[in-house]
Amino acid sequence: DRVLLVVAGDPWQKRGQVVASGPDRLALVHAAVDPVEGVEASGVEVERPGPSVTADTLDELAAPGRQFFLLLGADAVANMPTWKRLEETRDLCTIVVVERAGDSHTEPPGPGWRFERLSIPRLDVSSSDVRARLAADRPIDGLVPEPVIHAIRARGLYTEP
Fold first, then answer.
1. Distance between CA atoms of 97 and 36, rounded to whole angstroms?
2. How far apart are CA 97 and CA 58, in angstroms?
3. Element (H, E) at 94
4. C-alpha distances in angstroms, 26 versus 14, 20, 22, 59?
5. Which bin fits 34, alpha (ψ -120 to 50), beta or left (φ > 0)?
6. What are 42-73's pLDDT values in tens digits?
7. If pLDDT is split at 50, 70 and 90, which confidence band does 106 have?
8. Spatial separation of the C-alpha atoms in residues 145 and 143, rounded to whole Å
9. Cα(152)–Cα(26) distance, integer angstroms
10. Which of 67, 65, 68 shows the shortest CA–CA distance to 6?
11. What are the helix (H) ranges across the chain?
């Protein structure tokens, strides 16, 4: 009935590569989705100490009768074999892999997964490109929502290469 965009508090697989803090990234997601009906920013992982683990988050959000559909990009699905508590995650949700048009089909990380595919138009925009443009003081208009641009500037994010 709703989509939660969960911001990783401590993305343990990206340690040393994360440029903005969890609270800053959560603020950007709020700026992007607050006006969108049925879509919410979630700080459940930002507020929880320790590494962000999907199974922990699903356990925390679980309630009787609640079903989870975990939306992931093909790159995240390819990385799933390295996840902590992977087997437990399989029993907690259906994976919905969001594939860009023209990409090859992504496969589940093993047997027994509930797995769906969602194809979207190909948009060749990456977060690293957006950050590089900001660091070079180049515009990002049209690449991210206007409220996100304002939040990035207000917080002084992504100004260094």
1. 22
2. 17
3. strand 94-100
4. 17, 10, 6, 21
5. alpha
6. 999 999 999 999 999 999 999 999 999 999 99
7. confident
8. 7
9. 11
10. 68
11. 22-33, 44-47, 54-61, 74-79, 86-92, 127-135, 146-155
Report the alpha-carbon distance of residue 136 to residue 159 in Å, rounded.
8
Number of other CB atoms surrounding residue 60 within 10 Å: 11
Give backbone dihedrals phi and psi of 88, rounded to 5 degrees, phi first.
Answer: -70, -35
State whether residue 129 is helix, strand or coil. Answer: helix
Q: What DSSP state is assigned to residue 158?
A: S
- 90 burial via Cβ count (<10 Å: 0-12, 13-18, 19+): buried
* Tokens read off for 63: 């309630």
Q: What angle do CA 15, 135, 99 make, to 5 degrees?
A: 60
> Would you state the pLDDT for residue 143?
93
User: SS3 for 61?
Assistant: helix
Q: What is the pLDDT of residue 161?
A: 67
Check if the beta carbon of residue 115 is closer than 8 Å to that of residue 136.
no
Tokens of 5: 């965009």
